[in-house]
Amino acid sequence: MNEKNFITIALPKGKLFGLSAELLKKIGWTAEGLHEKSRKLIITNEAAQLKFIITKTADVPTYVEYGAADIGIIGKDVIVESGKDVYELLDLGFGKCHLMMAVPKDKKRPRLEDYAHTRVATKFPRIAESFFAAQGMQMEYIKLNGSIELAPIIGMSESIVDIVETGTTLRENNLEEIVTIMNATARLIANRVSYKLKFDRINALVNNLEKILAQENFLC
Ligand code: PRP
Predict the structure, then answer these.
(1) Which residues line ligand 1 (CB under 6 A)?
(2) Closest residue to atom 15 of ligand 1, CA basis
(3) Which atom of ligand 1 is nearest to the CA of 15?
(4) Dist. CA 207 → ligand 1 center (Å)
């Protein structure tokens, strides 16, 4: 079988995996043994000429930019933070969340500017920096990889810039959102060269996904 006809798809571990795999399955893009906990690094469907790789969420744009994956599904927030040059094909509508700044309720300051020159803990230092720079605010950034909400609670930072989905994590940790930075949903992305070389298959995928999303209002 000619390997050149295969499409490699990068899917993120974590919250977006289930819906991404489910959506692709609806158009027959699936493979036996494709599940988030799989320890197999590449899961292949020979008949359909598909290869799936399951990567850390933040790494999906990297695999796609380098062409290790032809396409991928990932949140808009992660695309922007990565700064990777990928082609965004489709807004899939699910995985709705927003990136915001939050602070401990009991330490809230009157105005946003009152936080200038304080510490912000975040998984999204690029987005945070460009947001604060646009407000004319210089900040100190502490890059963390998870459980960001902990930082202001234990006094390591004054605030966080993080994702909110249901708001449960903020509530349970007595934090309050003070400003929204961006909204995000899951996107289908492609490597720019793959998109040209494998245009027919990738374009058919986009058309089929658009139909499914329109018909079913897929979990918006
Ligand atoms: C994300 C995010 C928040 C939480 C928000 O973390 O960083 O902590 O989800 O969701 P909520 O508004 O529904 O509570 P994730 O679960 O990805 O884990 P992490 O903290 O290890 O990054």
Answers:
(1) 14, 146-149, 162-169
(2) 146
(3) 17
(4) 32
| Positions of the chain with pLDDT under 70 | 1-2, 217-220
Alpha helices in 101-157 (DSSP H): 125-134, 150-153
pLDDT digits (tens, 9 = 90+) for 72-123: 999 999 999 999 999 999 999 999 999 999 999 999 999 999 999 999 999 9
Instruction: State both tokens at 37.
Output: 């906990």
Would you call 120 exposed, middle or buried from its count of C-beta atoms within 10 A (0-12, 13-18, 19+)? buried
What tens digit of pLDDT does each residue of 69-83 get?
Answer: 999 999 999 999 999
Packed helices 199-216 and 17-26: angle between N→C axes, nearest 10 degrees: 100
Find the 202 Cα to ligand 1 centroid distance in Å. 31
How far is the centre of ligand 1, averaged over its atoms, from the C-alpha of 67 (Å)? 29
pTM over 0.70? The answer is: yes
pLDDT for residue 218: 60
C-beta pairs of 22-25 under 8 Å, 24+ apart in sequence: 23/92, 23/94, 23/209, 23/212, 23/218, 24/73
Residue ID of nearest Cα to ligand 1 atom 18: 146
List Cα–Cα distances, 98 to 34, 65, 78, 95, 177, in angstroms.
28, 24, 12, 10, 11
What separation in Å is there between the alpha carbon of 177 and the centre of ligand 1? 14
